[in-house]
Amino acid sequence: xxxxxxxxxxxxxxxxxxxxxxxxxxxxxxxxxxxxxxxxxxxxxxxxxxxxxxxxxxxxxxxxxxxxxxxxxxxxxxxxxxxxxxxxxxxxxxxxxxxxxxxxxxxxxxxxxxxxxxxxxxxxxxxxxxxxxxxxxxxxxxxxxxxxxxxxxxxxxxxxxxxxxxxxxxxxxxxxxxxxxxxxxxxxxxxxxxxxxxxxxxxxxxxxxxxxxxxxxxxxxxxxxxxxxxxxxxxxxxxxxxxxxxxxxxxxxxxxxxxxxx
Amino acid sequence: xxxxxxxxxxxxxxxxxxxxxxxxxxxxxxxxxxxxxxxxxxxxxxxxxxxxxxxxxxxxxxxxxxxxxxxxxxxxxxxxxxxxxxxxxxxxxxxxxxxxxxxxxxxxxxxxxxxxxxxxxxxxxxxxxxxxxxxxxxxxxxxxxxxxxxxxxxxxxxxxxxxxxxxxxxxxxxxxxxxxxxxxxxxxxxxxxxxxxxxxxxxxxxxxxxxxxxxxxxxxxxxxxxxxxxxxxxxxxxxxxxxxxxxxxxxxxxxxxxxxxxxxxxxxxxxxxxxxxxxxxxxxxxxxxxxxxxxxxxxxxxxxxxxxxxxxxx
Lengths: 262, 314
Prior knowledge:
The structure holds two protein chains of two kinds.
Chain A: H1 2-19, H2 32-40, E1 45-47, E2 52-54, E3 65-70, E4 77-84, E5 91-96, E6 100-108, E7 114-122, E8 127-134, H3 146-150, H4 153-156, E9 160-167, E10 170-177, E11 194-200, E12 206-212, E13 221-226, E14 233-240, E15 245-251
Parallel strand pairs in A: 1-8
Antiparallel strand pairs in A: 2-3, 3-6, 4-5, 4-7, 5-12, 6-13, 7-8, 9-10, 10-13, 11-12, 11-14, 14-15
Chain B: H1 5-14, H2 16-20, E1 30-33, E2 36-39, E3 57-62, E4 65-69, H3 75-89, E5 93-97, H4 103-106, E6 117-119, H5 121-142, E7 156-157, E8 162-165, E9 168-175, E10 182-187, E11 193-200, H6 212-224, E12 230-234, H7 243-264, H8 269-272, H9 287-306
Parallel strand pairs in B: 4-5, 5-6, 6-7, 11-12
Antiparallel strand pairs in B: 1-2, 2-3, 3-4, 8-9, 9-10, 10-11
Helix pairs in contact in B: 6-7, 7-9
């Protein structure tokens, strides 16, 4: 019995050594260290509740689960990662709020019960991480998109809807794309998704840019807070994994439809 | 103390006898009218603590035999309900009405002969198309509570009118809105209206298959039907028969207005799910839960309708 315990402790010690670079995961995820190694490497990492990762109490639809990452309480955020530990495609979005408030909201797929996290990187290279567990029915990444089942995805590909509202400091931009966002995990449907998105001001200056993966829900919906003024024209440019280009323009409204709380 | 492997195994073998005993549904029928009882569902989400028994069930004593309106979430529930109902009336169950396709109302049919089960044609076809998906979700959430529950389809298709059960007449109202086909019933003798999930009472309405415009039309028709007390799909009996209809309408009107305004103001789905719920709904169970579910059901459609096209492709 004692010998066995010693052996077990010895076995446990191996991952413990590899893990000591990263703080212990408050969510107890089996994938924390593996993801931390891949995503953060040698950069310093700590858990910080000021990274607000907000989502509903229940995953009503595992194919479209709303998540918002709000790091406006932290100065100097350069990059925001949205990832779900136990998804087969863990990272959904890698966002650089170049000239925008550190906030992003979107909808992602959930393939099973998983931690959903936001990680923000500061100019120093340090990563601040937060998140929570969400229970979900299986298969968000491995069931065919609705538009594939209906068969009308190609009729609407490239449609972009959106509006921009002025805020006290900047603007709120809401974008909705029609795209099947195929994960490659559904039989006979190859990976096909929106892979990059850039928001520019009227002079061509980059306000926001991101990489996107297929764990973002079908028909991606994205909210950003670029530093743009009322009346200013925003240009949206995107590309998918087939090289198809997407373009849209939206003027920031002169006034809000109603006061927006956030 | 040092426990040997053998002691541990013996201990483990003894313990699970209690742990493995299947949990039971407590079926406690309440008399609500002459010869009619209500089995109250929990005013909560479907969760292991309640075994999915969240819908109200009606038991009607007729000269032809016992009639059930809805039959709960599982085989185990259906069996317990059958035993409780037949003990009350001392007559066999001769008719099971299924008000609509949702699993908390109809999966208990596994305990009955589908030849006595009756539903609207739209409910039967929806069960055929979507029953498996709903059943899978119930097994995932409820586990052992669902053991042995198969999907059976009602064999009797109803088109309205009334059924005469040995002299006790039940008026059938084919409606829609909470789902594609919603059956409401009125007992002619007592005037009791059994509204299915078209009416919720002090429990927030759910919208996974809702058409809000059709739902409003159905609520108008329910209100216009002569009736007495109202037995809602979820929540307590409404003795006056109209307050629960008005409350359901108030909620779905508020829901649609709030989500429409939220899309117009540029809120994300997460933010829309955090909108303040007015004080007048403070007595409503599961309000925040159902609001967030409704955001998931309704928001993408509202955005597609309300946000303008901005693409400059081609």
